[in-house]
Design brief:
The chain is mainly alpha-helical. The protein has a domain of 33 residues. The protein has six helices and no strands.
Length: 143
């Protein structure tokens, strides 16, 4: 309100519509220039970001993929070292054990041994008969 009063006093009522039109035109141009400048800055930022992404994608595809995955999954290489240590221990254990026969072969050998002449027959279990003394003791205890 104060601005309008000052404008009427300084410019005068007769020239006021023309002055308002020219001021609004300049304001529109200034806003347009500011909008264009902001859009160009945003575009430069997007292009820079796209360039970074392109470079990263190019580096990823041009290098050894296995190496990149290992860097992402196990950056220190601790897991790989531990797995190699465990594999070495497994190899040591496997090389120190004698080779065992397969279960089918062991069963076939035991059947052949049982059918061989002179092979010992398995002992049959006979029920034990009570002694005369133990029978007398149990009879005396019952009385």
């Amino acid at each position: 309100m104060l601005i309008a009063f000052v404008a009427v006093v300084i410019v005068g009522p007769r020239d006021l519509p023309r002055v308002v039109r020219s001021v609004s035109t300049y304001l529109r141009k200034a806003r347009s220039i500011a909008r264009d400048f902001q859009n160009s800055l945003e575009e430069v930022a997007r292009e820079a970001e796209l360039d970074d992404l392109r470079k990263e994608a190019k580096n990823f595809t041009s290098g050894d993929i296995e190496k990149r995955v290992n860097e992402l999954v196990d950056p220190g290489g601790d897991t790989k070292k531990e797995m190699e240590r465990i594999a070495g221990q497994a190899r040591d254990v496997a090389s120190s054990r004698p080779v065992e026969s397969a279960p089918d072969e062991i069963e076939a050998e035991s059947i052949q041994d049982a059918k061989a002449p002179g092979a010992a027959e398995p002992a049959e279990a006979k029920p034990s008969e009570p002694d005369d003394k133990s029978a007398q003791k149990s009879a005396a205890a019952g009385q």
